[in-house]
Structure formats: structure tokens, C-alpha cells
Amino acid sequence: MSFFTLCLLISSISFFAYGASWFSSPHMKSEFRRFNLEKFGLLTVVLELLGATGLLLGLIYHPFLLISSGGLALLMFLGVWVRIKVKDSLWVSLPAIFFMILNFYLFMVSLQPYLN
User: Fold this and answer.
1) pLDDT tens per residue across span 10-44
2) Left if phi > 0, otherwise alpha if psi is -120 to 50, otherwise beta: which for 88?
3) Can you state the angle between helices 3-24 and 62-85, rounded to 10 degrees?
4) Range of 90's domain?
5) What is the DSSP string of 46-96?
6) pTM for the full predicted model
7) Dihedral of alpha carbons 19, 23, 26, 30, sign
8) What is the pLDDT of residues 82-98, one digit of tens each?
9) How many domains does one find in the chain?
């Protein structure tokens, strides 16, 4: 298994788990209330689940990989921005930073065939 595929699987599985936890964990909903973004919680989860699905489908149909990784990187960039805005610590913000960088890497690698 290549490093790229491993990164893709880590991202996809993580976003599936995060999306599922929205429906089972009250903590997830309380975080969106804390950010004063509760009206965007379900939309965010749907985008994460679509992104996770798109990453996996991108192994078969490359444009899905490009769109999904770019979308998840952007979503995580916005998540980092919100955490900075509410003055969360670096430690609390690390997962969002990690997934932003991870999906930006996936996006850049998946963009390469279009640049040649």
C-alpha cells in the first residue's frame, strides 16, 4: 500500500467516524453551539460524509478524489479559522490542522495529472 493510499484511507475513515459521531454523541452538537454555528452542524457533517465517500470513489474515478480532497481541505481550513476565532488552544486545534494538511496533500498529489 502506498503512502498516498494510506493517507487517503486515514482521512476517509476519520471523516466517516466523525460524521457518525454527530448522530451518536451530544458533544459534537455542543461544539457547534460553542462556536455559535449550530445551524451549520448538519451541513458540515453531510459535507464530511460526502468528502469521505468521494475520497474512496476517487480511487476509481480520479475527479472525485480531486474535488473531495480539495473540499475537505477547505472545510478543515474553515474549521481551523473558527478555532482561532474562538481562541481554542493549539492542542485542541491540532486535529483540524492535521486533517487540513492531510487533505491538502491529497489534493496536491491528485492535482498533478492535470498539471502535466
Assistant:
1) 999 999 999 999 999 898 899 999 999 999 999 99
2) beta
3) 60
4) 3-115
5) HHHHHHHHHHHHTTTSHHHHHHHHHHHHHHHHHHHHHHHHTT--HHHHHHH
6) 0.94
7) positive
8) 999 999 999 999 999 99
9) 1
